[in-house]
Amino acid sequence: MVINDQEVQEAVDQFMAGLKRRNPGEHEFHQAVEEWVETVMPVAMRNPECDRNQILERMTEPDRIVIFRVTWEDDDGHARVNRAWRVQFNNSIGPYKGGMRFHPTVTQSVLKFLGFEQCFKNALTGLPMGGAKGGSNFNPKGKSDREVMRFTQSLMKELHRHIGEHTDVPAGDIGVGARELGYMFGEYKRLENEFTGVLTGKGLTFGGSLVRTEATGYGAVYFGRHLLEQVGDGYDGKTALVSGSGNVAIYAVEKLNELGAKVVTLSDSGGTIYDKDGIDAEKLAFVKDLKEVRRGRISEYADEYGCEYFEDARPWGVQADLAFPCATQNELDEDDAKQLVDNGCMAVVEGANMPTTLAGLHVFEQAGVHFAPGKAANAGGVAVSGLEQSQNSLRISWDAEEVDKRLKGIMSDIHDQCVHYGERDDGTVDYVSGANLAGFNKIAQAMLSHGLV
Ligand code: NDP
């Protein structure tokens, strides 16, 4: 069936109008769906089964959302109240799977966008995992360990009813690292009286997988290596900008260093450091201690090493060959994208989820910048979470070399799928379309097999 661009655009507009009507005010969710539907609509229009079975409508409607109050007590004996969610989006290809985020900016819209993208990301890994996301507007900054523990235990008192190793397997995300996952696991174990792989990202002494901590950052850099090789290039001698200074950013820098690139920036919500000499292994050890142990601000790096610090700024004004946004959604907008293009940036690899706005993405597309979307490039984290589940089920632990080898294989497969579905006539690759279509095809086939459920 021949369908022209105008017909596709009209169908996209009509679909988005309906989605916005059904989900008022959920801007992040609208944005994630719009980026997706622009690429899958032509395929859906060519396949009458999609319309007959309302595949696009069903894929954009979560299976369920659990919303609950979390009441806890702070160190002064005052009661505190937060809101928490678990968005179980789609379990067509496996149990729900996706991280928990603790951050004051968490809303239902943010978790719906994350849960939606998680479905396609998980499908790309080749592992049997459906998509979900959860979290709370709780702010862990400035809280004592005991306050975080009491909050997390209170949250789990409700969440435990809705999750399980065959139902829904949460993991970490912004504000949820080893400490929070440890408390969550301990409380789940107490409430259910069972020791299972119900969470991933666990500590190594109680069922965690080696390389899980590093997996998202490493995986993004492996993906970037394939992307560069696709155009006959590599990391050697390249300068890279990395944003954020959390889990993803730290291990992206570690692997970029190892593979010959020089990373010159890191950031947090306070600002950006610019170290023109490069953030080498010794300086990165300082950042790990600063962020993972002391929970300090990135400005302290500038004090320590005497480099530049730009308060309230993001890294995108600095000249570099590569950009790895690894902090949060919508941290790279249209103006940032134009600045990167003007400064000669040749590739953008998203370590974070949806860090680039839709307008920013269009700037990169028009300028011919190679662009790897988060749902493909940052899938290494959930892939190793899937491997953690496998190890828990088998009651064995693979060594780091084995897990890293599997991670590399999965990132290479994801890259191949993007090329297969996204190669343009001129031989360049549209990674956004490629990732969306590969994930869509797999989930759609499973949904069609299951009937109208
Ligand atoms: P962390 O909490 O470890 O680090 C997040 C970093 O981003 C911090 O430096 C934080 O700064 C910064 N940041 C967070 N929110 C904002 C904001 N609103 N404005 C500016 N800076 C902000 O999280 P992760 O590294 O785990 O996650 C980073 C991104 O990667 C997220 O988009 C996440 O969804 C995605 N991701 C993570 C995976 C994982 O395995 N951890 C897997 C796949 C994707 P500050 O400390 O000042 O808040």
Rg from Cα: 21 Å
Q: N-to-C terminal Cα separation, in Å?
A: 29 Å
Sheet with the most strands? 7 strands, mixed
Class derived from helix and strand content = alpha/beta
Properties at a glance:
Rossmann fold; globular; 453 residues; binds NADPH dihydro-nicotinamide-adenine-dinucleotide phosphate; alpha/beta; 17 helices; five-stranded mixed sheet
Verbal overview:
Among the domains are: 64-195, Rossmann fold (3-Layer(aba) Sandwich); 215-372, Rossmann fold (3-Layer(aba) Sandwich). Helices cover 50% and strands 15% of the residues. The protein is built from 17 helices and 12 strands. It is globular and about 65 Å long. Bound molecules: NADPH dihydro-nicotinamide-adenine-dinucleotide phosphate (NDP). NADPH dihydro-nicotinamide-adenine-dinucleotide phosphate is lined by residues 103, 105, 172-175, 216, 244-249, 268-270, 326-328, 351-353, 378, 381.
Set out the fold topology.
Layout: H1 5-22, H2 27-46, H3 48-52, H4 55-59, E1 64-73, E2 79-90, E3 96-102, H5 108-124, E4 131-136, H6 145-159, E5 168-171, H7 178-192, H8 212-230, E6 239-242, H9 247-258, E7 262-268, E8 271-274, H10 281-293, H11 299-305, E9 308-311, E10 322-324, H12 334-342, E11 347-349, H13 358-367, E12 370-372, H14 374-377, H15 380-394, H16 400-422, H17 431-450
Parallel strand pairs: 3-4, 3-5, 6-7, 6-10, 10-11, 11-12
Antiparallel strand pairs: 1-2, 2-4, 7-8, 8-9
Helix pairs in contact: 1-2, 2-5, 2-17, 5-17, 6-7, 8-9, 8-15, 8-16, 9-10, 12-13, 15-16, 16-17
